[in-house]
Write a structure and sequence with these properties.
6-stranded mixed beta sheet, single chain, 6 helices, alpha/beta, globular
């Protein structure tokens, strides 16, 4: 099964693999197996794999801009990528972090894919400013949040959150994290989506431009999840998110 999303003007398409396609990350399987899984997935969504730019997340604030097509075995190390090239896509393997697709399709036709987690949430602000710096108006920017761990599952020890908040120097980011926190059975529940939405709101992205695919990776059996694998002592794996510029 493939999870798919099509933008209003049909210029951006998003495709998300499920467990049925197997692991999509070279870190957790042999390269030959991952390539076979990826090739099957791209065959099913009818997109040539050689039209895709792959990147590997490292929980950083680094965002790249597509420069050239890469070999399917080659991946750029970063946590975000923007693409202007028509009939091409960008892809990244995910577990529980937020896959955030950010795009403008009416005038400039640009799409970005961001890997955002608790430790690098500020990358979302950087990604939106990347578009604003190119004179794209906030009301023309669209955001899609893909499958990720949700507040019902994302439970942390209070000490972990307190340590991060104490070390965080950006007061606004600290406020965003705090907005997503809630005590639950002696632990802290973290709503990363609520924190992300506060960042988008601060940059004047209209709420109606923000869409959310309601899948909790830690609960849904269709998706790989680091949290779920650790809890159930399962083999690790990652699903693939593809953002494609359909022009």
């Amino acid at each position: 099964m493939v999870i798919s999303y099509v933008s209003r003007l049909n210029r951006v398409k998003v495709f998300i693999s499920t467990k049925a396609y197997g692991n999509m990350d070279f870190k957790y399987s042999l390269k030959e197996e991952v390539l076979k899984n990826r090739e099957k997935f791209f065959e099913d969504i009818n997109i040539p794999i050689n039209r895709i730019f792959f990147f590997r997340p490292n929980h950083s604030f680094k965002i790249e801009e597509v420069k050239k097509l890469l070999d399917p075995l080659e991946e750029i190390s970063c946590d975000g990528m923007f693409n202007f090239y028509h009939q091409t896509g960008i892809a990244c393997p995910f577990g529980d972090c937020l896959p955030v697709i950010i795009y403008e399709e009416r005038f400039r036709q640009i799409v970005g894919l961001i890997h955002a987690g608790r430790k690098n949430l500020k990358i979302l602000e950087k990604a939106i400013k990347y578009l604003l710096d190119r004179n794209i108006r906030p009301n023309h920017i669209n955001v899609l949040i893909g499958p990720s761990i949700r507040k019902e599952s994302y439970l942390l020890d209070k000490e972990i959150i307190e340590k991060q908040l104490n070390e965080e120097r950006d007061e606004f980011l600290k406020a965003c994290l705090k907005k997503g926190l809630e005590e639950k059975n002696g632990l802290i529940s973290l709503d990363l989506i609520k924190s992300a939405e506060m960042i988008f709101e601060s940059l004047e992205i209209p709420p109606e431009n923000i869409k959310n695919l309601p899948f909790d990776t830690a609960l849904n059996s269709f998706f790989f999840s680091h949290y779920k694998a650790a809890r159930n002592q399962e083999k690790e794996g990652r699903f693939l998110v593809v953002a494609y510029l359909n022009i």
